[in-house]
Amino acid sequence: MAQYDFSTLSSSDLEDLVCDLLNAEVPNDSPIKYKTFKDGKDQGIDLLYSTEHNTHEHVGQVKHYYRTGFDGMFRKLENEEVEKVKKLAPTNYIFATSVDLGVGDTKKISDIFHPYIKNLNDIYGKKDLNRLIESHEDILNIHYKLWFSDTSVLTKILNSDLQFRSTDFIEYELAKRIRFYVKTPLFDVVRDSLKENNFVIITGDPGVGKTTLAEMLTYEYINENYQLLYILDDIKEIDRVLKNDLSKQIFYFDDFLGSNSAEINKAQGSESALLGIIGSIKRMTNKKLIFTTRSIVLNTVIQKSDRFRRFSKNLNEAVFHLKEYSENIKEKLLRNHIDESEMADDLKSLIERKDLFDFITSHKNFNPRSVEFITSKENVEKYNAKTFEKYIRENFNNPTEIWKHAYEQQIDYIDRWLLSTLLTFNERVDINLLEKAFNKRIDYCTSKDSVLPINPFKNALDKLDKGFIIRKNNTVDFINPSLKDFLINYIQTDTREINLMVDSIKYIQQVSELVLSLTEFHNILFPADLVLDMMNNYDSYVRKSFRDEDLIHLATFVNSHFEEYTKYDFLVKIIKDINDWEALHTNYRLNIAFKKFVTETNENYYVKKALDSRTEEIVNELVIGEYDIESAVELLENLKDTFDIDFHAFDSYTIINHLDSIFSDYIFTEAENLKDWATDTTEVNEIIDKLNYLGEKINDLGLSYEINLSELDCDWDEIARINEFNRQMEKND
Predict the structure, then answer these.
(1) What is the Cβ-side half-sphere exposure of residue 664, based on CA atoms within 13 angstroms?
(2) What's the rounded Cα separation, in Å, for the pair 707 and 705?
(3) pLDDT tens digits for 327-352?
(4) Residues 371 and 312 reside in one and the same domain
(5) Which Gene3D superfamilies did the record assign (predicted)?
């Protein structure tokens, strides 16, 4: 028998559950049917059965005091609820709670509500509710969040890899997340699509709840013994851990197309890998893939990519746009956040005031993130009731101004330096690296005579925590993408701040796509003394755990941003110091940058000689980092010329395997698209001609490879005829 502690249900969820359980207990021929009411001031009524003679025939009250326990709940009943019940004077009073009740507890409740509670059977504690659920198991189908309350399910989720499970992400925090969630009709549709197609893409505006919906889906699969693999940065991470067997795997990639122009450009460069992996997942058993992205980002990528645009025609059944919520769901979301908030009771009462409650739920800028923002204790504890209402209205009427006000007025310059330092990394960063980078910014921007607080990093980190940043598993990131968007737009107009960010760089990792795009936009040069220091003390600019990746990054950066001839001695030294070149295929940006590096340094004898000594490793890693078939063949041609490779004498096993993989994925994806959309054989013939042409080029290079075209061995005339007929029928409809 499952043991539900009800910790994942909000107060309104519990009321609905108790109502359904009591109605399930009533005989079919009984006129009694309980109903619940919209969240709000209930005057002591959560459940009600009325007759024409007595409005309050049966009154039920549901109390969700699973954290407070019996003593706290009983005080509340004595001090507030007893008087409400006396005024109602119901014929029969029913009481239910998620608190575990002993016999003595039940008797005490019965006594204070005498004579309205007729017998002890009208009092339901946690064990009683569990017994009712066992008798009416179909209730689980209606109350989706209930099964999360099974402690074994929570434990299973907590032991997964979701969100880099941190030490402070305990059962309480997980249950709280689920209590916040309000199930929408879209959930079942997305769940069915994931089951059918093996992948889904959830889109929507920032803050609308894409991540929450995705996480709720992953929780289900974790409970079904799927291994969760949370993808951090690059779609190609999936390729490295995807098992071609019957093991259960679910991949989750939040914001998979990025959130700013630098990240979007990277995503566009990975389109072949993306489409290939989707194609592979669709064909496999027990593999699931969940993406989230902003709607505008998905539309931008589709517009700029011919292949993605063609493929998107087949995505209709797997792409879901999370948009406006119904009024009922908005009210439940707001109510859940009010109930869970640790802010002062007078502020809670203010939000519950009808005019302000309605203002929030009917506002065009309503979304789960905005609600979380105004109910977070850290954000609102400085307000009194009068200023809090102004804060709420301003937050919804102009949300960007709220970030601006918080950034300019509520934190000091040292806190802002920490945010700028975090921004240079452009991703979640190890807290120790962030501290060292921040200390360099402090040293750069202050004189020896400056008066600074003791331990400025800890002070700034503590001040920004949960309001601007979030700490997880010894890492730091921005609290949400909207803050990062604001900072990028804010700093983009401040060339002085950009220069300070660049001048105080401590790690090569800080020379991120974002920093490069900001400097290029304003034609800001990296200081020569900074680049020289990188060359002279390069070990201090790289991370120990990512040393080879950072050395490759450093080599490409120095080559592009230092004009002196002395750089070549440094580049030779770096090339010889790199042990593993794997980052050339795991890091898309490095793959692109290093191909440019190879071309630009080809005329220097010493650099070329150093590269030649590592030819096989470099070529293999560069090639398997390329997922587009035409680009892969072009790359092989360039590498053959650059390194003067004789592929007949080259160990080509890795290259052939990769070619086989990307050609297979390409052919499968195109075949699926053509089967659905081709109305003549022209495009099929063009694809076959292209594949044959590429196959000839590969063999001309000295590589022995035959492209398998069996997926395209179909009756395309018949397929085209059927598709054309269906197209005409759709027009007629």
Answers:
(1) 10
(2) 7
(3) 989 999 999 999 888 899 899 999 99
(4) no
(5) P-loop containing nucleotide triphosphate hydrolases
